[in-house]
Amino acid sequence: MKKYFLNLIRFFKIGIITALCLSGVSCATLQQDVYTYSEDNNYIYNSIEIYEYQFIKLDSEFCLEPQAPVKGINNLLKEITSYINSTKVAEPFLLARLRAFEGLLYKMTGKTREAQNSWQEAYALQKGDSYVQLLSSRLSKNAEEALSMLEGTLIFDSKNAVLQLEKGKLFYQLKQYDQAVAAMDNAFILFDAEGLTDYREVYTPLRNSAWELNKLSGLSDADSKILNGIELPEPLTRRFCARLIWNEWAINQGNLKLLTRYSDKYKKSGKTRSPVPDVAVEDEDFDAILGVVEHEFMELPDGRYFYPDEEVTKTQLISWLKNLKR
User: Fold this and answer.
1) Is 140 in contact with 163 (CB distance < 8 Å)?
2) For residue 223, what pLDDT band results from cuts at 50, 70 and 90?
3) CA separation (Å) from 171 to 59, 134, 144, 166, 213?
4) At 253, is the pLDDT very low, low, confident or very high (cuts 50, 70, 90)?
5) For 24-62, how does the pLDDT look when each residue is reduced to its tens digit (9 = 90+)?
6) In this predicted structure, what is the pLDDT of residue 171?
7) Weakest mean pLDDT among 17-26, 121-130, 152-161, 312-321
8) How many CA atoms lie within 13 A of 160 on its CB side?
9) 20 to 30 A from 127, CA-CA: which of 64, 146, 220, 283?
10) How many percent of the chain have pLDDT more than 90?
11) What's the rounded Cα separation, in Å, for the pair 178 and 183?
C-alpha cells in the first residue's frame, strides 16, 4: 500500500505542477507545497493505509453478499469518523481520502445524505483522488449511470486501477459477467504493477464468482425448472446436492432401482467397507454419493473424501446439474 500512496502523491504533484507550469505559474516550490512531509502526516498516512485494506476487504464481501459485513462496516465507519475528529489532518490529500472512505461506508449502510456530505468535503479537497471518484460513482442514481460516469473518466485515466475495478463490480451487478471478469483482470494487472497485490487477493473471490456465473449463464430451461421447483435448504450441503442430482438422474433414466443400486450390491456381496472413507455404507445418501462420483457429476475434492456436510453455493449446485446434460 505504501508504494501506492507514494505513487499517488507523485501523480498529483506531477499533474498539478504540469498544469500550473503550462499556465505560466512558477513551479519552483510547488512540490513542497503539494505534499509536506511531517511526523503527523506520516502517522496519518500509515493509518490510512490500514483503513484502505480494511475497506477493500469489507467492500469485496459487500459485493458478494450485501448483508454479510454490516457489523464490520459500522465498526470501521465509527473508527474513521472518530479518527478524523480526533486527529489533526492538515494535508488535503490525506483528509480527502479519509472523507472518501467515510462516505463510501455511509453509502454501504444506506445513509446517502451523510455519504453526500462526506463526498462534498472530499471533492473540495482533492477531486482527482481515485477514492473520491469512486464515491462520486456510487452516488449515481443507478449502475448504468455509474458505469457511464466511470467510462468517461477512464478515457482520460485508463490506468486508474480503483475505477477499473469498480467497472468490473458494476458489470457484475448488471449480470454482464464476461465483462466483469475482463475489467477485474485488467484492474489486477494495474494494481500488481504498483506492488498492490492485496487487491488481487481480496477481490479474487468476487472475480471467481463472476467467472463461474459467466460459465453458467447458459443453464438450460430444464435445469432452471429443477431449481425453481425445489426449496433449497440452508445451509446447502454437498450431501443434499448429491441426493438431488442422483434422484434426477434416476428419473431421467426411467430406472428408480438406481436409487439403491450400490447399497443393494454391497448387501449381496457382504461388503461393509465404503470406497469413500467419510460416507459409510449405512449412510442414507450412500447410493447418491457413490452414483454422482462414479458418473462424474460431482467430484471427490481431494481424490479420496467426499466431505458430505461441507457447505456449497447455489452456483456450485448449478454447475453440477449441468453435468447431467453431458
Assistant:
1) no
2) low
3) 15, 15, 9, 9, 12
4) very high
5) 333 332 233 344 555 566 777 788 899 999 999 999 999
6) 96
7) 17-26
8) 23
9) 64
10) 67
11) 9
Tens digit of pLDDT for each residue in 230-243? 788 888 999 999 99
How far is it, in rounded angstroms, from Cα 215 to Cα 315?
10
Asked if the peptide bond before residue 235 counts as cis, ω within 30 degrees of 0, the response is yes
Give CA–CA dist 135/116, Å, rounded.
9
How far is the C-alpha of 271 from the C-alpha of 195, rounded, in Å?
57
pLDDT over 60 at 14, yes or no: no
Looking at residue 167, its amino acid is K
pLDDT average, residue stretch 240-261: 94
Place of cell 452456483: 315
Distance between CA atoms of residues 286 and 246, nearest Å: 11
Residue 102, all three cell numbers: 467515510
The sign of the CA dihedral 64, 65, 66, 69 is negative
**How far is Cα of residue 316 from the mean position of the Cα atoms in its chain?**
17
Cell of 95: 483528509
Q: What is the 3-state secondary structure (H, E, C) of the chain?
A: CHHHHHHHHHHHHHHHHHHHHHCCCCCCCHHHHHCCCCHHHHHHHHHHHHHHHHHHHHHHHHHHCCCCCHHHHHHHHHHHHHHHHHCCCCCHHHHHHHHHHHHHHHHHCCCHHHHHHHHHHHHHHHCCCHHHHHHHHHCCCCHHHHHHHHHHHHCCCCCCHHHHHHHHHHHHHCCCHHHHHHHHHHHHHHHHHCCCHHHHHHHHHHHHHHHHHHHHHHCCHHHHHHHHCCCCCCCCEHHHHHHHHHHHHHHHHCCHHHHHHHHHHHHHHCCCCCCCCCCCCCCCCHHHHHHHHHCCCCCCCCCCCCCCCCECCHHHHHHHHHHHHC
Nearest CA to 72 out of 105, 113, 119, 95 is that of 105
What is the value of pTM for the model shown?
0.63
